[in-house]
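RETRY 2/3 - previous attempt timed out on the joint model. Re-submitting the same 170-residue input unchanged.
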Amino acid sequence: MKIVVLNGSPRPKGNTAALVAAFQEGAESKGHQVSVLQVGTMKIGGCKGCEYCHTKGNGACIQKDDMAEVYPALAEAEMLVLASPVYYFGLTGQLQSVVSRFYAVMSPAAKKWALLLTSGSPNVYGAIEAQYRGILNFIQAEDLGVFAYDGKKVGTEEAFAEVRAFGASL
Ligand SMILES: Cc1cc2nc3c(=O)[nH]c(=O)nc-3n(C[C@H](O)[C@H](O)[C@H](O)COP(=O)(O)O)c2cc1C
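RETRY 2/3 succeeded.
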């Protein structure tokens, strides 16, 4: 299966990237094709609400930025993984901008989704999970797993083993 991971962390060698790498290792061990897009370091603006995509644009966004790399990946993905550090109880602004730009296509093709989160503190995932489940409900997609690690577990072999096993279970 074609799996696309959107890593919203602006730190390409950070905690979230390490978790994503473990997931990728597990999924690739079972023959899945995994593309990781480091959207946290790309130049991607938030949706401007101009409605060009739903009028003259016919599904294309008017903004010319690094979403040009993300849209084709979204169109092909059978599974989409959102990966993010918690930033003030939400996704990073970078990943939130990407999610706002889903509006142009309305419904990303992938019908299987997962969420990988890292944070400093425990119990800070409520808003992100609510958004995630709201999206899945809206586009009629299936949640395959939510994995969230706070400062006590982040970066541990236990965490890596869990997401590696998740990837290998797909
Ligand atoms: C701007 C900013 C906001 C953060 N907000 C929270 C937060 O609300 N709750 C929390 O538990 N950790 C918070 N953290 C900690 C990060 O979520 C945590 O260190 C994460 O593992 C960093 O991931 P990364 O290494 O992939 O960037 C914040 C960190 C930063 C830099």
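The first strand starts at residue 2 and ends at 7. Closing ticket.
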